[in-house]
What does this fold into?
Amino acid sequence: MENTAENKKIVLSAIQPTGTPTLGNYLGALKNWKKMSAENDCIYAVADLHSLTVRPEPQQLRRRTLDMYAILLALGLDPEKNIVFVQSHVPQHSQLAWILNCCTQFGEASRMTQFKDKSEKHPENVNVGLFTYPVLMAADILLYQADYVPIGEDQKQHLEITRDIAERFNTVYGETFKLPEPYIGKAGARVMSLQDPRQKMSKSDPNPKGFISMLDDDSVILKKIKSAVTDSEAKVRYAEGKDGINNLMAIYSCCTGKSYEETEKEFDGKGYGDFKAAVAEAVIEELRPFKEEFARLTADKAYLLECMTAGAEKAAHRAQRTLNKAMKKSGLFML
Ligand code: TYM
It folds into this structure.
């Protein structure tokens, strides 16, 4: 994915402001956002409209949106070189989502596993927003004509429906949207819960020992990794049936760059205690610069608001070009 300055690839991704991101969000997505930002034309959003589907408490949503914005800048994203913005500040997202709703079949939206999971988990609030969630996500991506979308494994199906929707629109109305590719890292694409390694690590896990938050104190990180569920073999090796150890090895590999073979050699003859201590140390070191930068940025709200405003303006300018094209092609009467 090497690019020349004139021919940069467009990268778009977003994250919901539903709480402090976990190590899963970081290793699965955010670390790649940062990695890709040096060489590509990157556009990153706080997906606050998506998080309305779970009806968060309004004050909390507002606070978490600003915090998530600070978290993105604290990754080291340069708001001058990249576009970092809040989704609801750019109304073109909701506008294109409506047009795309009319190009999405009820049946294909019903097949989304995230919709099925969420409706089963929260039968008291199966709202239509939850159903059309992937269509808004398609609008986020297609508005910017993105080439790549860095995401974790759990969002892959949403990328597939995005491509299907784009293809359908292009077929019906003529070439309008670029078909985006997912960018999913090898290790870290699906970081699992530390307490139940068959479930993905999630910030909504009621058991806080299951996930590491990006802002956890060092001592908390150490404690959580030490109490991670493993197995009785007491041998550090990547193998089927060793879900807990496989997960820790993936985390270790993402933070140190070491392959599974190197890790197996490093811990040959050593127990899980030594391995867990090394994993914790690697995670702590990986998150240290981010935590320091986050503390610095949250103390400067004026700067954050300035970046947020500039980000929204830049994003809206880009988004409007595609929206105009889609409106014109679909026959809406333009003034
Ligand atoms: P969200 O907010 O749930 O998660 C943000 C990113 O983190 C990844 N992720 C994980 N990766 C590895 N292991 C895990 N345990 C793990 N948990 C989460 C997710 O795959 C995601 O990449 N619908 C999206 C937000 C969104 C979006 C978009 C993404 C809205 N519009 C346009 C891409 C493009 C979501 O809910 O992510």
Summary: The longest strand covers residues 10-15.
